[in-house]
Write a structure and sequence with these properties.
elongated, 17 strands, about 25% helix, seven-stranded mixed sheet
């Protein structure tokens, strides 16, 4: 059975940063990712532009060179692939953590879909993009409904309903409209989200104002049918024809994993996990959190640029605790 000082769950940018920090500290580590390398970024829309500039996405001291001030998805994938290769990170892809058991005060056994491991420390850097927030309405599981948006060409000349008013929703609405889709937005609140990228917000507002994109504010989907959708609006229930529903209502961390690890969650609606802000250690000694998973449902609080520091904090805490050398 393989033994490690640090077992890192998640191969996103912050998981890679943790691996780099462990490697620089001469710790025996492994990164395990249930999907492909930086799996969450891979699932982003093909044309997505990051809000952050390239230098704020850098890890490991390797420069991120971008053609534009704000890099695109393809550039980010290339960059993090190069980082993993240059550091020759010890990473296992398409391997899922299935069970974690504390054997004693300083040892964990981790069972994955492929093998078993022993580690004295665990870092959870699992992100949040794998689990969508569901609408909980009839018809949500029809084939025409998706909680992820990829390429706008797929929706050309179709009647598309976009749920939400965040960055992902606005991008999907604009891009599919520009490929010839008839786009309708359903927005729970009375305006487009305040956090929408500043160079995009005027675009969507103008398209709605001129009627190119139809938007129902203060509204909710009630039932999704094969060819139509029922929408509750301030003026009453309406039914519109529909081919596809893009339910881009947000995502959340894997709370089931946190609960299996017996990490305390806040009792409010945000369900933020407990951790020490100086060390990132949870209420479970030897288990640390890194990245957006720290925010619970409040996923807009943490990004790559303000989570990179978690890696150095954690590795410093691991060394100070003397929980090394299994």
């Amino acid at each position: 059975m393989s033994k490690y000082d640090v077992f890192i769950i998640g191969g996103g940018p912050i998981g890679l940063a943790c691996g780099i920090a462990a490697q620089k500290a001469d710790l025996n580590y492994i990164i395990v990712e249930k999907g492909c390398l930086v799996n969450s970024l891979f699932r982003y829309p093909v044309n997505m532009t990051f809000f952050s500039t390239s230098e704020r996405l850098e890890i490991g001291g390797i420069p991120f060179m971008s053609l534009n001030p704000k890099p695109k998805r393809a550039e980010a994938l290339e960059y993090y692939r190069r980082v993993a290769k240059d550091y020759q990170l010890n990473i296992r892809l398409f391997e899922t953590v299935e069970h974690v058991e504390r054997l004693d005060d300083e040892t964990f056994e981790i069972r994955t879909s492929k093998k078993n491991y022993i580690s004295t420390n665990i870092i959870v850097a699992s992100g949040f993009y794998d689990l969508p927030q569901m609408l909980h309405v009839s018809g949500e599981h029809l084939p025409k409904v998706t909680h992820y948006y990829n390429d706008p060409h797929y929706y050309a000349f179709q009647k598309v309903l976009v749920v939400g008013a965040s960055n992902s929703s606005v991008d999907a609405a604009l891009e599919t409209w520009r490929k010839g889709a008839e786009v309708t937005m359903v927005v729970r609140k009375d305006t487009i989200g305040k956090s929408v990228k500043y160079w995009v917000k005027p675009d969507i507002e103008n398209r709605i104002k001129e009627g190119s994109i139809k938007a129902y504010f203060n509204s909710n989907i009630r039932v999704i049918h094969e060819r139509t959708v029922d929408i509750e609006t301030p003026k009453g229930m309406i039914t519109i024809e529909n081919d596809f529903v893009l339910a881009l209502t947000g995502y959340h961390p894997d709370f089931s994993l946190l609960k299996r690890l017996q990490i305390t969650l806040s009792e409010d609606e945000k369900q933020c996990p407990f951790f020490n802000g100086d060390t990132m250690e949870t209420n479970q000694p030897g288990i640390f959190l890194a990245g957006v998973v720290c925010g619970g449902f409040d996923t807009h609080k943490l990004f790559i640029e303000n989570s990179r520091e978690h890696a150095d904090k954690i590795i410093a805490a691991v060394i100070d605790s003397n929980r090394v050398g299994v």
